């Protein structure tokens, strides 16, 4: 989507976002700034995404909570109005325990856990800096930054409204999810050996 010069703004809202043709493109808005998410992810990214989604999907099958895989819109705002919502993201994996936040368009409010899987380049910086601050601001309880190429996961847990607890896990490690104390994550299953 290329915005005509006459329609360019310094800050975009969810109301603007809803007008964009996203059939062949994916966009996010962070603090009113649009980011193109269109480049196709790598096969490794998709394998790791599938493993993480399956982990939560299977765990939540008989429990309260839902898991969504991108594209799934998460609207983070202090306002209920579309024109006053300046953050719309599509995390790779979103876990939600409060069903009242889910609507036909996605999620309105903070999820309980978000997973972003790194891609090379600028998008990685966005996940590590810009989205980190955004998820912290809107009090996402647990944030994972997954590096599929170096086979590690950085886990940030919200304490006193800030990500003060950071752990890094590598292939071979097993850890517990903070919001689900009986869910163990085995990184050998998240990062299977490549077969090509």
From TrEMBL:
Keyword Hydrolase among UniProt keywords: yes
InterPro entries: Nuclease_put_TT1808, Restrct_endonuc-II-like, Uma2
Keyword Glycosyltransferase: no
Entry keywords, A to Z: Endonuclease, Hydrolase, Nuclease
One example GO MF annotation: endonuclease activity
Positions of the Putative restriction endonuclease domain: 15-181
CDD domains: DUF820-like
A Pfam family recorded for this sequence: Uma2
Protein name: Uma2 family endonuclease
């Amino acid at each position: 989507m290329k915005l005509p010069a006459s329609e360019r703004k310094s800050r975009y809202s969810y109301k603007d976002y809803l007008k964009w043709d996203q059939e062949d493109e994916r966009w996010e808005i962070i603090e009113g700034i649009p980011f193109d998410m269109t480049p196709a992810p790598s096969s490794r990214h998709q394998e790791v995404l599938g493993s993480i989604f399956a982990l939560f999907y299977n765990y939540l099958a008989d429990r309260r909570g839902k898991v969504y895989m991108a594209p799934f819109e998460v609207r983070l705002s202090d306002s209920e109005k579309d024109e006053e919502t300046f953050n719309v993201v599509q995390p790779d994996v979103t876990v939600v325990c409060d069903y009242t936040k889910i609507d036909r368009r996605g999620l309105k409010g903070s999820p309980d856990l978000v997973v972003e899987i790194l891609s090379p380049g600028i998008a990685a910086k966005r996940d590590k800096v810009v989205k980190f601050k955004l998820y912290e601001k809107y009090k996402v309880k647990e944030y994972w930054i997954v590096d599929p190429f170096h086979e590690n996961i950085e886990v940030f847990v919200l304490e006193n409204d800030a990500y003060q607890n950071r752990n890094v896990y590598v292939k071979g490690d097993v850890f517990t999810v903070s919001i689900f104390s009986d869910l163990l994550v085995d990184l050998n299953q998240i990062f299977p050996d490549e077969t090509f």
